[in-house]
Amino acid sequence: MAEQTNIQKPQAAPKKEVSSKVGGIKSASLVVLFCFIFAVCFYIFGLGYVGNFKDATKDVPINLMGTVYKGGVVVPVLITCFLVVVVLTIERWIALAKAKGSGNTTKFVENVKAALRNHDIAKAEDLCRKQKGTVGAVVYATLQKYKEMERDTILTKEQKLASIQATLEEATALEMPALQQNLPVLATLTTLGTLIGLFGTVLGMIKSFQALSASGAPDSTELSTGISEALVNTALGIATAALALIAYNFYTNKIDNMTYAIDEIGFATVSTFSAAH
Questions:
Q1: What is the pLDDT of residue 219?
Q2: Is the Cα torsion angle 242, 246, 249, 255 positive or negative in sign?
Q3: What confidence score (pLDDT) does residue 273 get?
Q4: Rounded distance, CA 183 to CA 251, Å?
Q5: What is the pLDDT of residue 45?
Q6: What is the 3-state secondary structure (H, E, C) of the chain?
Q7: Mean pLDDT by 10 residues, the chain (277 residues)
Q8: How many CB atoms lie within 10 A of CB 54?
């Protein structure tokens, strides 16, 4: 009896799904807490170091760090705000770099549109796997719905087009929170930094006027302290607000560019399906 040998053909490896994996810091409150602790320690032990002043009374600063220390109790709050802006700016840079994917977004859009014009869905999927990121993930999910609608024999053409469009919008909506995470904090600090700096400025001016209103000759030490407090808080508040505003607008523009790319490919996908079916 002849022995029969079963020769099994190697199975094709399953194709990988595409996910954005934006990541990032989930809780901005922890960032604020750690920055506040660091700011207070830096204010007390760094700026308040005796070597930054003429004597142990810490009345007369001899360098910039001592002058900043004389800004008063508002300084640690402003330093906290500034550090939060710096940390979240770096965090969003890393997160949006992952969301952007591994290639040029504009070139990716053109390549996918070219593949769709040729009705080569497999090539468009491969492009999404290579690109990765938010745009690649959203487009890949839309292409899966495209293929599903091609196999569907029940729905009308209008219903299929609506289903593809709905999938595109749903996938985009799921990605947006990860992209915009922590941006509201930066937006808040664009105004809050200025207001806190203004508050510190007002406190400093109050001390200056108190020194001027003292009986007899004005106390030059108190007067200089009040002016220092006013100017230091103004400078820190403006620096915080300016950096937060630049970072917020920069990252908002990057997110808008990704959204435009998704919309462009989505329109091309729907148009291709409409023309082919």
A1: 62
A2: negative
A3: 85
A4: 8
A5: 93
A6: CCCCCCCCCCCCCCCCCCCCCCCCCCCHHHHHHHHHHHHHHHHHHHHCCHHHECCCCCCCECCHHHHHHCCCCHHHHHHHHHHHHHHHHHHHHHHHHHHHCCCCHHHHHHHHHHHHHCCCHHHHHHHHHHHCHHHHHHHHHHHHHHHHHHHCCCCCHHHHHHHHHHHHHHHHHHHHHHHHCCHHHHHHHHHHHHHHHHHHHHHHHHHHHHHHHCCCCCCHHHHHHHHHHHHHHHHHHHHHHHHHHHHHHHHHHHHHHHHHHHHHHHHHHHHHHHHHC
A7: 45 56 80 95 92 84 86 91 95 90 87 89 90 89 90 87 91 89 93 92 80 63 71 91 95 93 89 82
A8: 12
The alpha carbon dihedral of 201, 207, 208, 209 has a sign of positive
pLDDT of residue 260: 92
Contacts of 232 (CB under 8 A, 6+ apart): 67, 68, 70, 71, 75, 200, 204
Strand partners for 61: 53
Supply the pTM of this predicted model.
0.84
> Is the torsion defined by CA of 132, 135, 137, 142 positive or negative?
negative
Q: What is the pLDDT of residue 9?
A: 43
pLDDT at 221: 66
CB atoms within 10 A of CB 98: 17
pLDDT at residue 178 in the model: 87
Give the C-alpha separation, 161 to 169, whole Å.
12
